[in-house]
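STRUCTURE:
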């Protein structure tokens, strides 16, 4: 693929090959099968012995805790079905193209995460009055921006106390796999992917705002490299569609037969419920409202949508979708370009060739 900014580099390819996306046809599944959920791993997947592993909770607390996986499993269970999306989803379609993991649209997935709630554990440690934030540290170490670090992120104390935050040891009913953070990860419903620290080893309550690299440098909405910017937090609305018809292998161009063609997909927002999805079949010149599904997966998961398209004329079409939420966030309005390439609001666009017929090929 090339564009105004030149070819995808070998470095970008190297990241893309390690960190796969969710094939968009999998949008047809309400819950993403584990091996099809997207992956984002900044450094290396750590090799953790679950028998030796401990979760350390300390810092500004009166009773520091050290918990084994068995001890965590004996605590009350909590499950949340959560749509997780990488903040960099859509990055490669920005101009100029920010150099990092080159996501098109596929850095998303929905899983049911099971573990134990964070808030009661924090309460048991007796957080001191001067505490302001909670830092979550993973076992994976690497260098980013020249800085040697463990992957870590913080939440304000208020945010960390939300009841739906889970310390998860299972994904879709099976033990966490190494690539998704085994033996334990943080799951913060509604927030972009970077918040959900994998291979969690330390939870540290602190009395100053955390200034680690992934908090102060990465994951900020910056319009110039010197801009301090604002931190990325909750997921802005997005709609994606399951590609209709059949693909061309190399170009991924879609082919559908003229006549009734139901377009369907999913939409989500970490801020509020989805208020609407719009579909365009003329490359974004005109938009129509799609039908929104019943939202049976709950507040933190994507919503299904569908739109009955009826292309009777053979030809080339560009089919697009975009979402808005009930808090007033609209994919049509939020600012596009930023240094990190986060939250690209560009609508999902697919090139579709409508043919007057598309007979099945002969088998064998
Ligand atoms: N320890 C650790 N946690 C991490 C990361 C990481 O590299 N290391 N990547 C984050 C990012 S940027 C994303 S988008 C999600 C991806 O989670 P998944 O790979 O389970 O889909 O994990 C987050 N948690
Ligand atoms: Mo991410």
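SEQUENCE:
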């Amino acid at each position: 693929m090339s564009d105004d900014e030149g070819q995808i580099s070998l470095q970008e390819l190297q990241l893309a090959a390690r960190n796969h996306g969710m094939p968009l046809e999998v949008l047809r599944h309400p819950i993403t099968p584990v091996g099809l959920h997207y992956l984002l791993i900044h450094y290396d997947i750590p090799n953790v012995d679950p028998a030796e592993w401990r979760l350390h909770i300390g810092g500004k607390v009166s009773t520091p805790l050290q918990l084994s996986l068995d001890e965590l499993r004996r605590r009350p269970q909590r499950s949340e079905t959560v749509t997780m999306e990488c903040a960099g989803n859509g990055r490669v379609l920005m101009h100029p193209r920010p150099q990092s993991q080159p996501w098109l649209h596929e850095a998303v997935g929905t899983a049911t995460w099971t573990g134990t709630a964070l808030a009661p554990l924090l309460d048991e440690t007796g957080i001191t009055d001067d505490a302001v934030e909670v830092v979550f540290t993973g076992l994976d170490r690497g260098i980013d921006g020249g800085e040697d670090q463990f992957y870590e992120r913080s939440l304000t104390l208020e945010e960390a106390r939300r009841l739906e935050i889970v310390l998860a040891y299972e994904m879709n009913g099976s033990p966490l796999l190494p690539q998704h953070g085994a033996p334990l990860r943080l799951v913060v419903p509604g927030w972009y992917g970077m918040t959900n620290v994998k291979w969690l080893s330390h939870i540290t309550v602190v009395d100053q705002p955390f200034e680690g690299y992934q908090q102060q440098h990465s994951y900020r909405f910056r319009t110039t490299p010197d801009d301090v910017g604002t931190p990325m937090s909750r997921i802005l609305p997005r709609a994606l569609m399951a590609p209709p018809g059949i693909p061309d292998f190399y170009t991924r161009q879609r082919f559908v037969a003229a006549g009734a063609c139901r377009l369907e997909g999913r939409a989500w927002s970490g801020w509020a419920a989805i208020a609407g999805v719009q579909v365009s079949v003329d490359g974004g010149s005109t938009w129509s409202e799609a039908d929104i599904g019943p939202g049976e997966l709950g507040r933190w998961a994507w919503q299904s949508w569908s739109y009955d398209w009826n292309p009777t004329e053979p030809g080339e079409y560009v089919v697009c979708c975009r979402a808005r939420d009930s808090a007033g966030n609209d994919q049509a309005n939020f600012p596009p370009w930023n240094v990190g390439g986060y939250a690209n609001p560009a609508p999902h666009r697919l090139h579709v060739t409508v043919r007057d017929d598309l007979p099945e090929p002969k088998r064998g």
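REMARK: Residues 10-231 form a domain with the Sulfite Oxidase; Chain A, domain 2 fold (CATH 3.90.420.10).
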